[in-house]
Queue: 4 jobs
Job 1
Amino acid sequence: MAGSEGGRSEEAESGEAEPGVDSGEWKQKVELAQEKAKQSQTKLDQALVNYEDKKAQAKLWQAKQSQVQAQLWQAKQSQTQLQQEFVPLISAVLMFILMLVLLLRQGNKISLPLTGQLIIVLPEECIAELEALHQQMKSDQRSIWFIRRIMLRSILESLWAFFILINFENLWLPRNKGRTK
């Protein structure tokens, strides 16, 4: 009996081992299973981080997309506003060209002097300056072609300043939002 009791005590001390399996093998299998569990947990953690990163990237992409759409809408609005502002400028240029064509076609048909013809188009101060320039060049005894060339240039500059340049500069003035047209 002592031998049989001694055998039982050794099995009890070593733990409950399966028949035919060594305790060293059992520990290796447990460690291997724990290692696989750790690897699976690491993979799950990485997958969760990747998922959260992709979710954050998707939110960022949506925010960028909405920002781009807002910028496109603002660009379309400014383009429309700019097109509406260029209409008066284009009409002023066309009126300028039309007046020049009419003045050139009439030639000497109108018996009014040059200042009389220009008073229809230009302000009085400008006409007075042109008349003073004309008188000064006559008193300096310049040739008639030189006087005509300088007068034509001065008239064109005045027409440009009063009909085109002013309208062009007014494009950048703020719109009067209080009044309705």
Job 2
Amino acid sequence: MKREMFKEVDVGERKFRIGRLDALTGSYITTLILMQMLPFGDAQVTGGSGKNRSLMDKETFIDVQKECLKVVSEVKSVGGNVAPIPIMLYDGRWGVEGLEEDTMTVLTLTIHTLIFNIADFFQGDALNNLIKPISDLTPFSAKE
């Protein structure tokens, strides 16, 4: 079975195409997320207790978000043709209008990108159980 290379999601009144992260970036982000979400974080890896584990620092979080958003395009009609327009350019600038101050759409797209790219690491409902608390927070009817 061929691996799906993208999926389209509706967020509010807008349609977006979620793409695949490259293997190295995907591995890096998956490892970061697993270290944040697993009980005791990196305690088993480092031998620590996990008690002093902190949230991901702002710089790392923004880096993860930017990497995720670089594989997202807004699907728009341009001159009678449908075209995917990258929402974040590779230099970190926004590629489409209206997202730079839209926290919920950016967060929703980041979550969709993570789910699409790391779902293969989980079996059964394990991923759904991890994201259930987050998915209830988004005010959009973000559909696949």
Job 3
Amino acid sequence: MTFIDSRWAEILEAHPLPTGRWATLPLIDRSTLVAYTAGPGRVRGERLLLGDEALDDMVRHDHRRRSAVSVDELEDMSDETRRYMRDLGLPAPPSAMRWSVLIPERISTAEFDRLIATAANPQEILQDPREDAAHSARAVTRTVARLLGVPDPLAKP
């Protein structure tokens, strides 16, 4: 049996808010952080399944490849995402998920993507790769929190 953190359970079980536009997030670790920050009512998760054309297309697009995703690759993707979240001090997400986030109507999907990508790639480069990743993650959660009007899970009290 797999344990799911209570916030992830709330995210997966919540009914979506009535207004906004759904933005499907790319199949990268940062998308899971965006989903976690957005929180219940603003996130939709869809389990990735082998043989899913959309999964194969996303992985092909993101990693410039031509073959279908294997069981091992799907497990590796899930392990990498769990490690990323744990390194940030956040609970591990459910395995093999594709996330969509409900964004305000006033923001286009392209603008949302651009703002998140800009936050994730700060101009300032630190010496330690782990510090860089944490710095980038804090910028992403601050940006998502500001855009969606939600609490920042990485904000220091």
Job 4
Amino acid sequence: MTAQRPNAVDSKINLHDSQRAAVLRYVQALDLYSSKGGVFNERFAEFKYLVHSLPNCKDLAEADVISLASSAYMLFCRNYDPNQTPPSDLPDRAARYLISYIESLPREYSVQITLPSVPYWGEYEVALTPETILKSSEPREVAENKRIAALGRKDQDPYIAISPVMLQVRISGFAQPIGRSGSTQPAVADALSTVKQLLFVLNLTRAVTTLSLKQAAARAHYLDVAADTSIPCELPGPLARALGTLEPASDALGIEEPGGTLLTPKIRPAANDPEKVLAFTRRLEFASRFFGRGSVPGFGRIVAAIEWYQDSAFQEDETMAFIAACIGLESILGDEDRGMSELSNRLTDRYAFMLGRDRQDRRRLAEEFTGILRVRGELVHARTTRLRARQREQLFIAQRMLQDVIRHEMRPILFDEPLGPGAPRSGPEDQ
């Protein structure tokens, strides 16, 4: 979930002599003179233990340690021709390189995701979360056409780049520094966590829509700020399609005029690109407001539930989507570990009293929640291995329930007013 990121300077460390010696022993056991290379040897377990003992690397999984070793190894070996006689101090140099890379963690990255369906209305930047900006830059093709026109040439290309608008997420951590990367890289996964939460809030506040029939997919890469290197990154298919079809909602592009009232403002459609930017950025302020209040009690539960909802919505396996929605409900409604029977009763009561408007409505909601828990129990306790056809409706019910609870909990943060159980709230998502 979105939280305070470790300070990239204060978190850095210096390895002491015994730790440096362990890295050297590992490197000396590598076949540095082979063009094929490889990171596994009899010293790898010792090296992995060392990395996991470091405060700036303790969250790395084994796959990340392998990626760290192999990437640093490949980057170092790029400097040497395998057909030439290697220098005698090659192991020492390789060890120093790996040590310096480990000491540089966490590194600063900028994860950049194209939004091909967002129109180009000119250049602007909007801060959406403490780490994320929406940035519209002049398309490269347009800039090139201007350059050609300035030279007096007539062959300028009329093509306009389809992705001049992008999300940029600043993050610190570790990501593979070479080759093509996936979304499971720790720093990239943290950035996509923020993006999924942001996408939920933008949809909720009707700033954007992702229901377009366009066949477009977002593309991503991450920039290692210190090394100034850019690595392509594969986005999960459903998320790539959602971001690829994301576009400003039509009712987010209105300009308020004099003559209206607080309850019935007078709105006209934005007439030109500057007005569209003005209207769109004002609607985006809801996201900025929400993510700027991370210190509000309960904020962590809300963003965790949002991410579970998005994991459920983007999951193509219906059974796993249902489990994710259930975990989201438990994360936002639960408070501590208890016996499952007591916990189920507590969650059911909390859900019903949070959203129910009267006794009959609360009874209906309680029965609905109990039905979801029953199906979850059958899956978790292996009485069934997947959602049956008759149970598939429960997936959509669970997702709708989770969304309702999240909306209820977000409104006080968005609109600065406390809500009682079952109380409605008018906002952009209800207009």
